[in-house]
Amino acid sequence: MDTAELTSSKTTKSKSFLVGALAVMPLTIAVIPWGILAGSFALEIGLTAVESQAMSAIIFAGSAQLVALGMIKAGIGIGSILITTLLITSRHLLYAMAMRSQISPLPLKWRLGLGFLLTDELFAISNQAHGGDTPAQHQFDRWYALGGGLTFYIGWNIATLLGIVAGQSIDNLGELGLDFAIAATFIAIVVPTVKKPSILVCVLVSLTLAVVCAVFAIQAGLLIAAISGMAAGMAYAKLTNEGVVVTDTPCADIAPTKEDTL
C-alpha cells in the first residue's frame, strides 16, 4: 500500500470513528443523570470512591449496576446478586447473536473490544442504515462501532465520576428524580426503531402490560410484558403478511438471476 492509499485509509477510519461518536452523543448526554445516580448510590451504600468508579469502568452496565447496588444495600447474598444481574444483562446475548455474522470475521482483539463495549445504545446505532439508503444496504463498520462504543463508555464513566463528587457534597441526591433518565434513555432508543406496524404493536402491547402489571404489583410483570409484546408483534406480522413482497407478474416464482440481484 503506497503513502496515498495509507493516508486515505487512515482518513476513512478516523471519519467513521468520529461519525460513530457523534451518532451516540445524544444517548450519551441522556444517560448522564443515570450515571450520576449510579456513582452517588454506590457511595451511599458504603463503597469507596475508587470502588464506585471501578464498578462503572469494569462492569459497565447501568441497570445491572443499580440493581446490584440496591441488593447489596438490602444485604442480599452474592449468589442472588449474580443470578439477577445475569438475567438483567441476558439481552446482550441476543444483541451478540444478532451481530454475530458481522463481527465474527473480525480479529480477536476487535471481537473482545466490541463485545465489552456492547450496550443497548451501541446496538441501536450500529444497526441503523448509516452505510446506505436502506437497512439492506447497511454495512457494518468496525470503526463506526468503536467510535460509538468508546464514546459512550467514556461518557458513562465521566457521569459516574460526577455522581461520586456530587454524592460527597450534595445530600439526598437520589431524591432529585435522576432515575427518570433510565426511562428516557430507553424511550430514545426504542422510538426510532418503530418503523413497521408489527413493531408498533409489540411496543404498545408491552407498554400496556408493563403498566398493568406495575399497578397490580405483579413481580414478573416486565418479563410478561416483554414476551407478550414479542408474541403479539410476530402474530400481527404473520396475519398481515408483513414484509412479504407480492407481485402480479407470471414469473414471480422464478428465482432471481445473478443480474437481478446486482
UniProtKB/TrEMBL annotation:
Membrane topology term = Multi-pass membrane protein
Check the record and name the InterPro entries matching this protein: Brnchd-chn_aa_trnsp_permease
Indicate yes or no for the key word Nucleotide-binding. Answer: no
Q: Which family does it belong to?
A: Belongs to the AzlC family.
Its primary localisation, in coarse terms, equals membrane
Q: What stretches pass through the bilayer?
A: 17-37, 57-89, 143-166, 173-192, 198-227
Q: Per its record, how is this protein called by name?
A: Branched-chain amino acid efflux pump permease component 1 AzlC family protein
**Per the record's keyword annotation, is Cell wall biogenesis/degradation included, yes or no?**
no
Organism the protein comes from: Shewanella saliphila
Please give the superkingdom of this protein's source.
Bacteria
User: Which compartments is it annotated to reside in?
Assistant: Cell membrane
**Alphabetical keyword list:** Cell membrane, Membrane, Transmembrane, Transmembrane helix, Transport
